[in-house]
Structure formats: C-alpha cells, structure tokens
Write a structure and sequence with these properties.
- By secondary structure, the protein is an alpha+beta fold.
- Helices cover about 40% and strands about 30% of the residues.
- The chain has an eight-stranded mixed beta sheet with strand order 1-2-3-4-5-7-6-8, with helices on both faces.
- The termini are far apart.
C-alpha cells in the first residue's frame, strides 16, 4: 500500500535510499527536495506490504497530468513485482487525470552497452504496465536526454504540446526561470 510521508520520514528515505538509488546528477540535494515537498510541488509515497517498507515514489501534479519523478524498489525487494504494484496504485490514485508521465533516459544516448541495456530494460518494465513512449518527443535537461512515457486509462489522442507545457511549468517551478537555458525539446 502506498502511504504519503511527511518531511521527517522523507529525510530518512533520502539518506538511506535515494542517495544510493539515483546518481548525484539525477537528484536534487536534500534541501532542494525539502523545498519542493514543502511547496506541495512533490508528494512522497512509501510502498509497504505487511508493514514492511519495500519501495517509494515521488510524484507531482502538473496540470492534467501526474509526473512520477522518482520510483525505486529497495534492493532486497527487487524482482518481486513491487514496482508493478507501485504503478498500479498510482494509476488507481490518479485515475481522474489525463495521464501519468515518466521520464526515462533515452537509450540512444547511452555511454556504453551496459548502460543502454539497463535503460532498455527500464522502458520494457514500464511498457508492461501499459506506459508508452510519447512519439517524437525528446527532452534534454542539463546533460541528460529523456524520452517521456505516458499511461492513459482512457486512450485518447496524446496532446504533446500540453505535455510539453506542463513539463516546462514543473521544471520552472522547481528549477527556476533559467530552465530555458538548460532544457531543449525536440519534437521530430
């Protein structure tokens, strides 16, 4: 079950797990996260089963969409379907939204075969949970190239411009007005 956590519990989560699960270049520092959570830009959820914490995710409402910014399963619980359960609960929680968005690293820009394999595996995992890559949408934020994936409960036309606008607003709110210097969007 997903449980929303308060800032103090998040600090423990950050120190014990987030710093191990995500490279420094892909995550804000604790102060940055704290600011985003306190401004209600980001919600933090812990996934528990039988009162045992097994994973977590962070999500933000951005207009008609939800953006899952971080999702991880604790190392000792991987391969048990926990990630799929987290996604299922997110879909149920946000069923009234147009869709749930994810950023995934673009495997076309992987530095080596091992990295590319990991990125492709991650995409396949999300595809099994009915997420699809938004066609012809690539984002480069700072030095990382992303594809955007979306889950839509009701299949409708993907409004790419609306998604781009929502992402700009999210990044601008969390990174600042200088985001336009660090973000490139390609729609080919």
């Amino acid at each position: 079950m997903l449980k929303k956590v308060k800032i103090q519990e998040f600090k423990d989560l950050y120190r014990k797990h987030i710093v191990k699960d995500f490279p420094k270049t892909e995550r804000p520092n604790l102060k940055g996260f704290r600011r985003r959570i306190l401004k209600n830009n980001e919600q933090v959820f812990i996934f528990e089963e039988n009162e045992i914490k097994k994973g977590y995710c962070l999500a933000s409402e951005i207009g008609e969409y939800i953006l899952v910014t971080f999702l991880a399963v604790y190392k000792e619980n991987r391969g048990q379907g926990i990630g799929t359960k987290i996604l299922k609960e997110l879909k149920e929680k946000y069923e009234n939204k147009k869709g749930i968005l994810l950023e995934v690293e673009n495997p076309d820009f992987a530095e080596n075969d091992k990295e590319k394999e990991i990125q492709l595996k991650r995409i396949k995992f999300y595809e099994k949970s009915k997420f699809e890559i938004v066609p012809n949408l690539n984002i480069k934020l700072f030095f990382v190239n992303f594809k955007i994936m979306i889950y839509q409960a009701q299949k409708q036309k993907i409004e790419k411009e609306e998604i781009i606008d929502s992402l700009y607003k999210y990044y601008q709110k969390n990174i600042g007005k200088k985001i336009f210097e660090f973000m490139q969007v390609e729609t080919k």
